[in-house]
Amino acid sequence: ARPAAAAMVKETIRVYARVKPLGRRQQAGSYSIDNEEPLPSLEITVPRDLADGFINNKRESYKFKFQKIFDQETKQDVIFDSIAKPVAECVLAGYNGTIFAYGQTGSGKTFTITGGAERYSDRGIIPRTLSYVFDQLQKDSSKVYTTHVSYLEIYNECGYDLLDPRHEASRMEDLPKVTIMEDSDQNIHLKNLSLQQATNEEEALNLLFLGDTNRMIAETPMNQASSRSHCIFTIHISSKEPGSATIRRSKLHLVDLAGSERVAKTGIGGHLLTEAKYINLSLHYLEQVIIALAEKNRSHIPYRNSMMTSVLRDSLGGNCMTTMIAMLAMDKRNIDESISTCRFAQRVALIKNEAVLNEEIDPRLMIVQLKKEIQDLKDELALVTGKQRTSELSQEELLQLDELIETFLKDNDPDSSLDVGADMRKIKYSFVHMKVFFSNGDDSKKLLSQDISEEKNSNEELEKLKGLLQQRDNEINILVTMLKKEKKKAQDALSQLNATSAGSTVSEQSPSMSLEESQSPSRCFSLKEAKVFSSSVPRLSFLSRATGGKMSLGCQEAFEVFKRDHADSLTIEDNKQLLKQRFDEAKCLGEKLNDVRNKINHLKGKIIQRQIQRAALAVSNPSEELTFDPIEENLRMQIEEEKKSYKTVYSRFKGLKVEIEHLQLLMEKVKMKLQKDFEIWWSEEAKKFQHEKPEMVTSPNTVTVCPQFIRSSQHLSPISFSDTSRDSLNEDPAVKKNSVTFGSPTLKTRTPPSSTASIPLTGDSQADADILAFIKARQNILQKKG
Ligand code: ADP
Ligand code: MG
Fold first, then answer.
1. Burial class of residue 99, CB neighbours in 10 A (0-12, 13-18, 19+)
2. Ligand 2 mean position to 734 CA, how many Å?
């Protein structure tokens, strides 16, 4: 028999659509959303003339059904509540879950899954889900939970572990490679993918940030990883009820898929991949798997064609609550792609899932269960072989039996049965019990066990009473000593009270007073508290390395200019302002908490005072009984009130803490990006300059980066060399060149980074010329120095 019951949920994959807000210069395409029952639909209209440009019979309007359609103005919290929360709930209940975002590059996949880099309110499904999950886990004390996270990037059929803690990856190849292993049961295992334990929201967010940073750093304009790779953030939860042998394990995959745009449109490098319609072959395989899953009676599903489909194998058709978000950009130029995204979504919506609870048995507890089973079997065997047991039934066993028999006799159901187990003694006892029951009649239902062990009982009773008496004696002694002490204390206190002003001296350690709640103000909140936030966020080592290191003056100046004009610096400024505001708020709340805490302490003091006074009174006047004291009761009520307000303020304080940490992470990320943009730009500029001065080129095959640049960029770059202390190497640029990442010859052919819009050079021409002149002059100076 399988001890763990397998629960199953069967439903089709839920497919949602989200329309990205239109850009300022984008022309709106024509579409309409109809919230009809039971499923809303999205209608896209393609103008005839445009349609005619393609195949003749191209339809004019297309209609697609979705679980729900979120139009442009939909905010991230709504997306989380309607799409992710139900999946997170399933995962908390022990099922697997997957949410994947599908759509062309720029349609908002990363924005939806991870979030925007600017505002706290823009945080996406991952941070919100983490927050929700940890909140729920904290609330549930009935189980023991363990949580881990992993973050996998798949690029070009290779898996990379984004949670590599070494922070040294400057290229994707530097990250640990993850490979797929299949066991004999055809289960997929990911070798080399680290599962990092996260015990709370903060730890999990730090891991997410680490992964996102690695993801960003590993990307070069050459590999365009963000549009061509899949990223899978997974939350692993295992739970166990105390004492139970079953462990539930569940996984929640949050998947940011590669861009779904077709090669024909992007026309990379002019040559098309003939074998696939997609820039991403693995997306093509994903579609094949989806088609196969949607078809009835298909026995073979081509999961093995790609790493992506292998990894998501049990998350697509199988054991999983799967949800897809079709990301749509509805401007005219992207409407074609959006239509094909919708088409894909319609196929996905046909797939049926069977989510099964993932339960396993804990071996230790299994042993306990087996032992019990062995005992039962032994009992049965004894019964069958007629072996008599001589030991007497214990008092407890007898009482249990009595109860069983009573319930059996009272039960009016003719089918009810009495099961006392395979123990002849118990069976015999039951018969005797029945006999007594019937001979005594209904009124005198005397329990047999009481008769049998009457003598034994009375002896026990006597012992018990003796013990109790001793206990009471002790208590009385203790109370008398206490009273004496109290009397002395009271006298002392009274004399002191007379000497000083009332309320100023209050004993802190009162044994009778305690704020029981875990949230009781155990610490003093001060300005320091707010500052602790910043230091509590572990800084990634390369950040300090990147900013703390020395760079050449020229490079530094250029960086200042670059920073000033970079679009992200606005974000940084905004966030700084916001952070300051939040810090102030936190400070305010911290002060409030202190106030409340002081108030509570003050009230506590008053109660103690009151008690001392009354104790003193009772001692000096023993006839007066200690009765209910309305004043003390009132004080207690006041404390309760204060505690309530403390709790509200505290929870706001905590929320603010999470927000501040998130903002800090966002800022770090933007700073990193700025730095990276600058390095790319700087190396491009350096190269341009070199092209203008061919005599500087040392050899036609080597990199055309001037030595000054290499020296300065070493310190600036978050990329670490294998051994920076080897000065002899540093001094020889010819040797160094080969190990500098942006010095790689391939750089020459690469297209400008997508973020060039934010680089001064693509702004107005006057500014561009200024910057170039500035760089040139700087280079000249540096070269002269060199
Ligand atoms: P993808 O990951 O699909 O390539 P992104 O998530 O990077 O696309 O989105 C492209 C740009 O559009 C980003 O700058 C992002 O901030 C912005 N964006 C996407 N969706 C939204 C949205 N719903 N609201 C505001 N900005 C969005
Ligand atoms: Mg993206």
1. buried
2. 37
- The fourth-level CATH superfamily of domain 8-48+57-362 is Kinesin motor domain (3.40.850.10)
The closest ligand to the CA of 70 turns out to be 1
Determine whether the annotation assigns residue 441 to a binding site.
no
User: So what's the pLDDT on residue 137?
Assistant: 95
Indicate if ligand 1 lies below 6 Å from the C-beta of 109. yes
Give the number of whichever ligand sits closest to the CA of residue 79. 1
What are 123's strand-pairing partners? Answer: 115
CB 124 near ligand 1, within 6 Å: no
Distance 109 CA to ligand 2 centre (A): 5
CB atoms within 10 A of CB 428: 12
Q: What is the pLDDT of residue 84?
A: 97
For a ligand 1 pocket test, name from 18, 78, 111, 219 the mutation site with the most ligand atoms within 8 angstroms of its C-beta: 111
Distance CA 461, CA 312 (A): 67
- 163 alpha carbon – ligand 1 mean position (Å): 24
Residue 675, pLDDT above cutoff 60: yes
pLDDT tens per residue across span 335-383: 888 999 999 999 888 887 766 666 776 667 677 777 777 877 877 777 7
Q: What are phi and psi of 603, to 5 degrees?
A: -65, -40
Residue 381 CA to residue 367 CA, distance in Å, equals 21
At 80, the amino acid letter reads F
How far is the centre of ligand 2, averaged over its atoms, from the C-alpha of 747 (Å)? 23
Question: From CA 709, how far away is CA 686, in angstroms rounded?
Answer: 7
CA distances from 281 to 117, 286, 386, 567 (A): 29, 9, 72, 34
Q: Say whether pLDDT at 434 is over 50.
A: yes
Is 107 annotated in some ligand binding site?
Answer: yes
Q: How confident is the model at residue 239 (pLDDT cuts 50, 70, 90)?
A: very high
C-alpha of 738 from chain center: 40
435-488: per-residue pLDDT in tens? 877 776 554 445 555 555 555 666 777 777 777 776 666 656 555 655 666 677
pLDDT for position 67: 95
Q: Is 106 annotated for ligand binding?
A: yes
Structural domain boundaries in the chain: 8-48+57-362, 567-684
Q: What is the mean pLDDT of the chain?
A: 73
Distance 318 CA to ligand 1 centre (A): 30
In short, whether 108's Cβ falls inside 6 Å of ligand 1 is yes
Ligand 1 atom closest to the Cα of residue 113 is 6
User: What pLDDT score was predicted for residue 678?
Assistant: 80
Q: Is 103 annotated as a binding residue?
A: yes
pTM, to two decimals: 0.59
Tell me how far apart the alpha carbons of residues 711 and 719 are, in angstroms, rounded to a whole number.
Answer: 13
Q: DSSP string of 588-630? A: HHHHHHHHHHHHHHHHHHHHHHHHHHHHHHHHH-TTS-----H
Helix (H, G, I), strand (E, B) or coil at 353: strand
The answer to whether the CB of 111 is under 6 A from ligand 1 is yes
**Average pLDDT score over residue span 690-714:** 41
Query: Nearest-CA neighbor of 646 among 589, 608, 582?
Result: 589
Q: Residue 13 above 90 pLDDT? A: no
* 395 assigned binding-site residue: no
Contact call for residues 693 and 776 (beta carbons, < 8 A)? no
Which residues make Cβ contacts (< 8 Å) with residue 665, sequence separation at least 6? 205, 206, 209, 537
pLDDT band at 413 (very low <50, low <70, confident <90, very high): confident
Residue 105 in marked binding region: yes
Closest ligand relative to 215 C-alpha: 2
pLDDT digits (tens, 9 = 90+) for 604-630: 888 888 888 888 887 777 666 667 788
User: By C-alpha distance, which of 382, 611, 631 is closest to 489?
Assistant: 611
